[in-house]
Structures are given as C-alpha cells and as structure tokens.
C-alpha cells in the first residue's frame, strides 16, 4: 500500500489497493524559500513587543519570554536543516543538524528553568515542544513540495488505551523514523529520532483513529514502508503491511499484537513474498496483486517494528505471503494457492519460512 487516503480491505482476498498521494504530497524534492527570514521576523516582532512593555516583567513573564525565544530558535534551526536537506538530500547531515537543534533547545530550556524555577508557567517537557515543532515543520515542508497543510498528529504524547508502536533499530547505524498519516504532510517525531544502532528504541502512540499511517527511514520514494491503518471506520481493527512499492532500503520485521492471526511478517530483502513488491520486481501489479499482503488485528494493541530485522526468537528469514513462498501474480484463485491467502506460518499448508525466496 503506497498511499495514505482510504482504509485497506480487511479480507486477505481483497485485491483493491488504496493509493497514497504523489510523492510531492508528503516529501521528495522541494525547496523552502525564506524559512530563516520568517523565523527571524517572528523573533524580532516578539522582541519589539517586549521592549515596548511599560511594566517590569515578572519572573513568570521572563521565563515565558525565554522559552518563546528558545522555541523560535528551534523552529528556525529546524527549517534551516530541512531546507538544506531539500537541496542536498543528505539524510545524515539533516539528522545531525536536527539533533544539534534539539540539543540547543534543551540547553536553553534548562537554563530558563534553572533561572526562574517554579515561576515558569510552562508545564510541557522539552520533548513535547520538540515534537510539535518537528511536526509543524514537516507539514510546512510537505506543503512546499505541493502537499497538504493539514498538521500531522502528535504521536509522542504518552496515551493509554490506544494503538502503540515500539520501533527497535537493529541496524548498524543510528536511524530516524519519519511518518505521514492520511493526507497530512510528513513529520519527524522527536520520540522516533536518532534511534541508537544495535537496539535503540522509541515509542509512538497512535491515538488518532481512521488514519492510515506510514513509517520509514531515509527518503520517501526510495525506502521500505511499514503501513498501519488504525481503526478504519471505527470497526475495531488495525490493518497492516510492509510495502516496497516506494522502494527498498532496509529489511523490516513487524510483530503484531498478541492473538493476531498473522503473528509477524519478516521481510529481509526486496523480493520478500510477505511484502508488497517493488515496481521492478512486479511491474504489472505491484500495488494490487491477486491477493494483497495486508492483514488485520484488534485495535488498541502494541506493535513492534524491528528495523533491519532481528526480532527476538524470530529467524531473520522471509516469511510466506498470501501465495506462500512465491510472490502473488496479477491473477489467481485463492483456493489454488499455498497459504490460501492467510500466511500463518505452519498453518493452512503454509511453510514456517521461505529461506530461498
């Protein structure tokens, strides 16, 4: 599934695919003109307003001023990093620049807190400020590339009773995860940034229902996707898949909530039968094979996504898809294919894994 608009079909036999917006809708090549000037103008206007105040500022007002200026600097720094990325498309440089932005904000935030203590009116932690700035910047970046200005939902605020995604980075280098939901622009939530190599984790809380989320590392259009449609239509299920429709860069393993009929999917390479294929591997129907590799689970559970595979107690070997260890063709009869459209390892005549796929 490579678009963010409508729910997936629940049945594994469904052969319709929903479609994501064009790449420009949520990322890709874009430019941001004057982002720094906009941020500087906002800071200047704020400074002039403060200077013009006739009454001495209270400790609370002074703290608010300090935090506002820190947030303005964070936004300016974030836009500058994204603008540079639009030009050079160097993911490593962008991630390093964004990390410096966050560190500078942490320092300024702590300095204000230390100076004014309990007089500071702000109650949100630094991570909440960072997440909000990252999401609004991501939306503006998407709009610069022709996308929607609808804000991406906040996925970093801890919530109970919602669908939860735990991301573990088992790659050999640090990874940052980007997401998009519905028709919103892409966002880089602080809780999923700079996940340490060889086991770093981050948790996202997907409290907004009826949204089709996509998560990836790298650049949209050349990256592996984990797609999760949360409670579409309020029917009490989440639909999920791994997709290489937009490209392949890393293997992924997804472990579904306990009790799901398809307990996990392992996709180690670009031809994994349990994932949607690349256009190169299945040019005629890569978005809509005869049996689609998307499944469902009860909503409100905890999902575990392992970047570069490496899920505990699960071999790093491709799992079967709806047609077993073969990629589903464009036309087929589900009764005649291995796994009968439901690739539960070891059941329905399905193999446990596909070592030669």
How would you describe this protein?
The protein is of the alpha+beta class. It folds into 2 domains: 23-27 and 150-341, Thaumatin (Sandwich); 35-136, no CATH class. 27% of the residues lie in helices and 15% in strands. It contains 5 helices and 10 strands. The protein has helices at residues 23-26, 35-51, 59-88, 91-116, 126-144; strands at 163-169, 178-181, 200-206, 211-216, 225-230, 237-243, 252-255, 264-267, 295-298, 302-307. Strands 3-1-10-7-8 form a 5-stranded mixed beta sheet, with no helix packed on it. The protein has a 5-stranded antiparallel beta sheet with strand order 2-4-5-6-9, with no helix packed on it. A hairpin with a 6-residue loop joins β5 and β6 (237-243). α2 (35-51) packs antiparallel against α3. Residues 1-54 have low confidence and may be disordered.
């Amino acid at each position: 599934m490579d678009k963010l608009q409508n729910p997936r079909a629940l049945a594994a036999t469904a052969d319709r695919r929903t479609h994501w917006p064009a790449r420009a809708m949520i990322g890709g090549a874009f430019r941001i003109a004057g982002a720094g000037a906009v941020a500087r103008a906002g800071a200047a206007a704020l400074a002039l307003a403060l200077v013009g105040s006739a009454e001495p500022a209270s400790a609370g007002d002074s703290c608010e001023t300090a935090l506002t200026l820190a947030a303005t600097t964070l936004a300016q720094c974030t836009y500058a990093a994204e603008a540079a990325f639009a030009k050079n498309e160097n993911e490593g440089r962008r991630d390093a620049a964004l990390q410096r932005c966050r560190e500078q904000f942490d320092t300024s935030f702590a300095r204000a807190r230390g100076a004014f203590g309990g007089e500071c009116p702000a109650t949100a932690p630094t991570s909440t400020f960072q997440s909000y700035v990252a999401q609004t910047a991501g939306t503006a970046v998407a709009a610069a590339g022709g996308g929607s200005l609808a804000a991406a939902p906040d996925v970093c605020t801890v919530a109970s009773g919602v669908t939860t995604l735990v991301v573990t980075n088992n790659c050999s280098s640090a990874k940052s995860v980007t997401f998009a939901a519905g028709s919103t622009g892409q966002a880089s939530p602080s809780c999923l940034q700079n996940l340490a190599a060889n086991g770093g984790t981050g948790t996202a809380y997907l409290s907004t229902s009826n949204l089709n989320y996509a998560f990836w590392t790298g650049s949209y259009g050349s990256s592996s996707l984990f797609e999760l449609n949360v409670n579409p239509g309020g029917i009490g299920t989440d639909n999920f898949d791994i997709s290489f429709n937009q490209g392949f860069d890393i293997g992924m393993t997804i472990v579904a909530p306990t009790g799901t009929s398809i307990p996990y999917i392992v996709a180690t390479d670009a031809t994994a039968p349990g994932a949607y294929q690349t256009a190169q591997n299945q040019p005629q129907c890569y978005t809509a094979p005869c049996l689609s590799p998307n499944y469902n689970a009860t909503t409100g559970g905890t999902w575990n996504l392992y970047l570069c595979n490496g899920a505990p107690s699960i071999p790093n070997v491709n799992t079967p898809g709806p047609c077993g260890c073969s990629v589903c063709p464009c036309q087929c009869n589900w009764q005649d294919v291995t796994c009968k459209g439901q690739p539960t390892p070891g059941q329905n005549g399905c193999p446990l894994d596909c070592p030669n796929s």
